[in-house]
Amino acid sequence: MSNSSPEGISAEQTFVSHLIELRDRLLRIVMAILVVFLGLFAFANDIYHYVASPLMELLPEGQSMIATGVISPFLTPFKLTLIFSFYIAIPYILYQVWGFVAPGLYKHERKMVMPLAASSTVLFYTGMAFAYYVVFPLIFAFLTTTAPEGVEVMPDMKDYLDFVLKLFFAFGVAFEVPIATILLVWMGTTTPDKLREKRPYVIVGAFVIGMLLTPPDMISQTLLAIPMWILFEAGIIFSKFFMPKDDDSNSSTDSTPPKSPSPNSPSGGSSSSQPDEDDGPTEEEMEAELDRIEAEEDREEDREEELERAERARKKARKMADNVRMDHYEPPISKRYEPLDEVSEKLLDEELDMMDGTSGTEPDSSK
């Protein structure tokens, strides 16, 4: 018998199946990037010219970009096209990530992830577009006019690519601030009111992040910090719609104003008098009760999903145990050997008869 328990075998097979699924999805992501790259590689030089146009249009007359490396004219557009292919494939990459993690999420979590994934993709693209159409012209207009007399502005194409890729990534990530704010509120880590109290620190932090992620100039730093601050304020506004329901019900219950004392009370309307027992629930109390009921329904749905998962795991473990027992099953002796056919049985009988005849004709040695 095997020493491994059915539960251990089931857990091991589940882990291996997850690894296989992860490998398959990573291969799909790589294949998607390669497909996009192969489709864009023929236009690599055009893509680089489009990305470099904000600087090339502002260079003084008679000056242009240069390539100081031997393989830079080929390798730089190649690198840009590959990274651009990755950016284009981001929706498909997020779809594969979603397909891998979705089975392990609860129902309310699945409802939350898809809108956030879609909005984060749009915000990332918006940040890149903001950098290209707003930030680049301002930065390059400033940099090309600050060269000392006698110095010709002729940027290297490789250095320019590294510069703009850094800005693309910085602004793309910076525009994800509303998503981060909503996630913090949704997980119950903080509240919109607490975030408003931290506004001065957020503004200072935005300028610090702008200083770290952008080149050492005030223009790009300011152009990154101000949108981060504005997006932070937008995240606070939208995070109100994603607050946990339990927190909503508790806050609404705690914020219910006390009832005014009855004028017919014996104490003459003093502040210590209690409301009449005949008064019905207020609107705030009804809303709090409805929120509590909805929260209980959500918890009940989560509990049912957990029970279904446990039942599926139990059935799988039972099936694995049956397979293990069948692997070590030995049939009885009567079923291990197949019966002889007619020819073999006849030959065996003839041989036995010959042996009997030989033994009958053997002389008796005792006489």
TrEMBL record:
Assembly and interaction partners: The Tat system comprises two distinct complexes: a TatABC complex, containing multiple copies of TatA, TatB and TatC subunits, and a separate TatA complex, containing only TatA subunits. Substrates initially bind to the TatABC complex, which probably triggers association of the separate TatA complex to form the active translocon.
Region feature (Disordered): 247-341
Biased composition (Basic and acidic residues): 319-341
UniProt-recorded Gene Ontology molecular function terms: proton motive force dependent protein transmembrane transporter activity
UniProt family annotation: Belongs to the TatC family.
Membrane topology value: Multi-pass membrane protein
Predominant location: membrane
The organism's place on the tree of life at top rank: Bacteria
Bias (Low complexity) ranges: 265-274
Function: Part of the twin-arginine translocation (Tat) system that transports large folded proteins containing a characteristic twin-arginine motif in their signal peptide across membranes. Together with TatB, TatC is part of a receptor directly interacting with Tat signal peptides.
Protein's organism: Candidatus Thiopontia autotrophica
Protein's UniProt name: Sec-independent protein translocase protein TatC
Acidic residues bias locations: 275-308
A single GO cellular-component term on record: TAT protein transport complex
Entry-linked InterPro entries: Sec-indep_translocase_CS (IPR019820), TatC (IPR002033)
Transmembrane segments: 29-51, 82-101, 122-143, 163-187, 199-216
Pfam family, one: TatC
Signal peptide: none
UniProt keyword annotations, A-Z: Cell membrane, Membrane, Protein transport, Translocation, Transmembrane, Transmembrane helix, Transport
Cell location: Cell membrane; Membrane
UniProt-listed GO biological process terms: intracellular protein transmembrane transport; protein transport by the Tat complex
